[in-house]
């Protein structure tokens, strides 16, 4: 399965999500192949940190769109593929969407991010395969129970066309920033932590 993690707006945590999902899959015997199609190459950077610090398992990260096309068209390939992308490379984004079997859209709990997601869904609709699954979830949700924006944003996602809102929230936690800077998945850094449980729930949809 080729899974794209994307949204039109920057700062939604796409690379953090893509990295954690790739690390999760890397622990499985099938392994994972990751692609970083964002010119900032954040996924490349964090994987270099992981390799330099000697954390296992490591996995390959490519920035080659042609390689992604070739791998996606290889019917013999059973290895999961994770793609991190951004709107700053629109041709690569559109191509990745056209190849995807699943698109994961992290959405921050704000009205601006809902509007951005609406625009991204139009791009998805224009480029995706008819069988592509499009899933959205709240990322960096507020941990304070009195803040209403997270619930409101989740309700807004449910009303958007062309996307299925999944009952998963990743909260605004220091663990995500710390694990990313150290080249570790949150479930490796703190297996019993809240962030670990959240990410494991998200990763379960990849099975």
What structural class should be given to the helix and strand makeup?
alpha/beta
Helix content: 40-55%
| Weakly predicted, low-confidence segments | none
Strand percentage: 15-25%
Strand order of the largest sheet: 3-2-4-1-5-6-7
Rounded average pLDDT: 94
Number of strands: 7
* Alpha plus pi helix count: 9
CATH superfamily: P-loop containing nucleotide triphosphate hydrolases
CATH architecture classification name = 3-Layer(aba) Sandwich
The CA-CA distance between the termini, in Å, is 10 Å
| Overall geometric form | globular
Write down the CATH class.
Alpha Beta
Tell me the count of domains: 1
Describe the structure.
The chain contains nine helices and seven strands, in the order βαβαβαβαβαβαβααα. With 207 residues, the protein is α/β, with parallel strands linked by helices. It has one domain: P-loop containing nucleotide triphosphate hydrolases (Rossmann fold), CATH 3.40.50.300. Helix 5 (111-127) links the parallel strand 5 and strand 6. Helix 1 packs across helix 9.
Quick recap:
By secondary structure, this protein is an alpha/beta fold. Helices cover 45% and strands 18% of the residues.
């Amino acid at each position: 399965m080729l899974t794209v993690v994307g949204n039109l707006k920057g700062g939604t945590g796409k690379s953090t999500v893509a990295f954690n999902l790739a690390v999760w899959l890397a622990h499985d015997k099938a392994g994972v192949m990751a692609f970083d199609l964002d010119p900032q190459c954040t996924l490349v950077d964090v994987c270099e940190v992981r390799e330099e610090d000697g954390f296992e398992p490591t996995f390959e990260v490519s920035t080659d769109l042609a390689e992604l096309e070739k791998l996606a068209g290889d019917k013999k390939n059973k290895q999961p593929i994770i793609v991190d992308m951004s709107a700053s490379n629109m041709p690569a984004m559109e191509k990745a969407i056209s190849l995807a079997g699943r698109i994961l859209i992290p959405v921050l709990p704000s009205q601006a991010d809902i509007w951005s997601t609406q625009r991204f869904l139009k791009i998805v609709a224009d480029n995706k395969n008819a069988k592509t699954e499009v899933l959205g979830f709240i990322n960096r949700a507020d941990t304070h129970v009195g803040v209403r924006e997270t619930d409101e944003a989740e309700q807004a996602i449910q009303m958007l066309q062309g996307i299925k809102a999944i009952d998963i929230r990743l909260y605004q936690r220091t663990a995500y920033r710390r694990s990313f800077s150290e080249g570790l998945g949150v479930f490796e850094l703190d297996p019993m932590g809240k962030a670990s449980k959240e990410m494991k729930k998200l990763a379960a949809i990849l099975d």
